[in-house]
Design a protein that fits this description.
Elements (H helix, E strand, L loop, with lengths): L9 E5 L7 E3 L3 E10 L22 E10 L4 H12 L2 E7 L5 E15 L5 E15 L1
Antiparallel strand pairs: 1-2, 1-5, 3-4, 4-7, 5-6, 6-7
Length: about 140
C-alpha cells in the first residue's frame, strides 16, 4: 500500500438530496478516523485458559474528528446547524486512494476558539449512527 498525504483525507457533508452530493468541510487542518468494535467474550472451561471472542457480535462504530480554521463556508454552516439541533446527517470521509467511508453521524462536539489578532478555529467530533459503508 502506497503512502498517502494527510491533506487528502477529507471530511464531507451531504446536501440532503437523493442521491446526495457531498461538500468538503473546508478549513480542516487535521482529520482523524477511529473504527471501534465492542467484543462479546465466550470464554469457558474448555478454552484452555485463553480468552475466546464471538465473531460478528457486539457492536461497531466509527468516530470522526477534525480541527481547523473557520472560514464561514456553506458546509460549515450546515455542520453548525446540525450541532445545534442534534440532527443526524450523512457524512463521508474520503482518502487519497479514492476509498471512502459514508454513513450517518451525530456531531457530539463542536468547539470554536479564537485569540485576539488571530484566526477563529474550531474542532469537531462525530459518532456514527447505523451502518457505515466503505467504497
Amino acid at each position: 500500500m502506497a503512502a498517502e498525504r494527510g491533506s487528502a483525507f477529507l471530511l464531507k457533508i451531504g446536501d440532503g438530496a437523493t442521491p446526495p452530493a457531498f461538500s468538503t468541510i473546508v478549513g480542516l487542518r487535521t482529520t482523524q478516523l477511529a473504527i471501534n468494535s465492542d467484543t462479546v467474550v465466550i470464554t469457558n472451561k474448555g478454552s484452555g485458559g485463553w480468552r475466546e471472542l464471538l465473531s460478528n457480535a457486539g457492536f461497531r462504530s466509527v468516530s470522526l474528528s477534525g480541527a481547523g480554521v473557520f472560514n464561514g463556508s456553506a458546509a460549515e454552516a450546515r455542520v453548525k446547524a446540525n450541532a445545534l439541533s442534534g440532527t443526524i446527517d450523512l457524512y463521508q470521509a474520503t482518502f487519497e486512494s479514492g476509498d471512502s467511508m459514508t454513513g450517518k453521524f451525530l456531531i457530539t462536539r463542536l468547539d470554536y476558539a479564537g485569540d485576539f489578532n488571530n484566526e477563529r478555529s474550531y474542532t469537531i467530533a462525530l459518532e456514527s449512527s447505523g451502518n457505515v459503508v466503505t467504497a
